[in-house]
Amino acid sequence: MAQTRHAVLPEQTHDEAAREEYCGTLRKFFTETLWPGTREVYAGLERPRFEREHGRPPMNVREVKQAIEHSFYYRASNLVGRCAQELLWDTVGESIERQLPALRAKAKPRSEARGSVRINPDLAIPRYVDSVDIHVMPGNFHTERGEDDVYAGALYDRGVYHFAYGGMGPENDKLGVAMAGWLKSRFPDFQPKRILDMGCGPGFSTLPWKQAYPDAEVHGIDIGAPTIRYAHARAESLGVPVHFSQQDAVQTDFADGSFDLVTSCLLTHEMPVHLIRRMFAETYRLLGAGGMSLIDGGAPPADGPEEEFFTTWFNRNANEPFSAGLRNLDLAEAFATAGFPADAFFTSGARDAVYLKGMGGTKQAGGKSAGYVGTVKR
After folding, report:
1. pLDDT of residue 351
2. Please, how many CA atoms are within 13 Å of residue 294, restricted to the half-sphere of its CB?
3. How many domains is the chain built from?
4. Which of 135, 144, 167, 234 is deepest in the core (most CB within 10 A)?
5. Burial class (CB in 10 A: 0-12, 13-18, 19+), 63
6. How far from 22 is each of 9, 25, 30, 162, 373, CA to CA, in Å?
7. 322: CATH
8. Per-residue confidence at 310, pLDDT binned at 50, 70, 90?
9. Which of 352 and 214 is assigned the larger pLDDT?
10. How confident is the model over 341-351, as a mean pLDDT?
11. 131: exposed, middle or buried (C-beta count within 10 Å: 0-12, 13-18, 19+)?
């Protein structure tokens, strides 16, 4: 399954395409074979060793890690996983750097555009964003490499496709399509007229909302200017009118009660808990009466320290330092503290992560997601 072509998707030479394919295959080998194998090594060798030495099983994540670090298999698997992550971004990035001037030119807004794009050059980039290259992606989502830059958006678009080895679909939109489809099925009478997607990135989760509710006015915001420019150009090329603006989800410039639906996908696990709470408070301000908030819930709390260790590889090894905080956050309490009625909270319950179904099943560790979490403003 090839990635859907659009005007600003980077082109590849034969050799670049081959290298990118290799990176995706290496990640798949690590995710589906090497890392799950560490569970077997731990259960068969390293936990029994720890129990013989200490007279008890490991009691916390630190002790689980202490036990398995004896294993060469574990150390080698970790190395392959980290190298695969770095190699993916480096390989895709080299291809983009070669054609970046052309991509910038293609992404410039056109007068005939049906959507819109707003950049805020005075927006302060928060320290938690600026100090960490999330996913080990160089420059994160916000770093500018020149005037009218789109590097970060292009890197994420092409990189994520290979990161998930095509499992996110030809438009990288499976998560957004599933989220919008679930909401329409669960609340068939809910017909939002104005929708806001927070932390929209290149628009993977944004465009499906316009496709699900074609009469709605859809907005997407993200902290990164290069990502927002790219998202607008991508949406226009795919024929989906969306209004994108560079904004921080914890404090936007929209008026009170501007939206009927405020949503986010793959955002909260990249934010510190105190800012997740601020985002929920901003969501409450932005929603009109009867408006709904819907987020992807991340992963459910782990069942003990061993399960927590084996399902948080990215937290420790791929620059996702805030994901553990989300796992332990009481989302119902956080929404209630933001002002939403306690009895308006709802969840879809645990489910298989959508993108894993396109990646050969759920063989890898951490194959479950907490599904969708939402609430209503009355």
Report:
1. 58
2. 27
3. 1
4. 234
5. middle
6. 19, 5, 12, 9, 36
7. 3.40.50.150
8. very high
9. 214
10. 87
11. exposed
Residue labelled with tokens 């759920």: 362
239-255: b (≥16 Cβ within 10 Å) or e: ebebbbbbbbbbebebe
Q: 11 — alpha (psi -120 to 50), left (phi > 0) or beta?
A: beta
What does the H/E/C string look like for the chain? CCCCCCCCCCCCCHHHHHHHHHHHHHHHHHHHHHHHHHHHHHHHHHHHHHHHHHCCCCCCHHHHHHHHCCCHHHHHHHHHHHHHHHHHHHHHHHHHHHHHHHHHHHHCCCCCCCCEEECCCCCCCCHHHHCCCHHHCCCCCCCCCCCCCCHHHHHHHHHHHHHCCCCCCCCCCHHHHHHHHHHHHHCCCCCCCEEEEECCCCCCCCHHHHHHCCCCEEEEEECCHHHHHHHHHHHHHCCCCCEEEECECCECCCCCCCEEEEEECCCHHHCCHHHHHHHHHHHHHHEEEEEEEEEECCCCCCCCHHHHHHCCHHHHHCCCCCHHHHHCCCHHHHHHHCCCCHHHCEECCCEECHHHHHCCCCCCCCCEECCEEEEECC
**Residues with Cβ < 8 Å from 341, sequence gap 6 or more?**
375, 376, 378
Task: Look at residue 163 in the predicted model and tell me its pLDDT.
Answer: 93
Whole-angstrom distance, CA of residue 68 vs CA of residue 103: 46
Q: How many CB atoms lie within 10 A of CB 62?
A: 11
Which residues are paired to 375 by β-bridges?
293
Which residue range is the domain that position 129 belongs to? 1-378
What's the pLDDT score for residue 352? 55
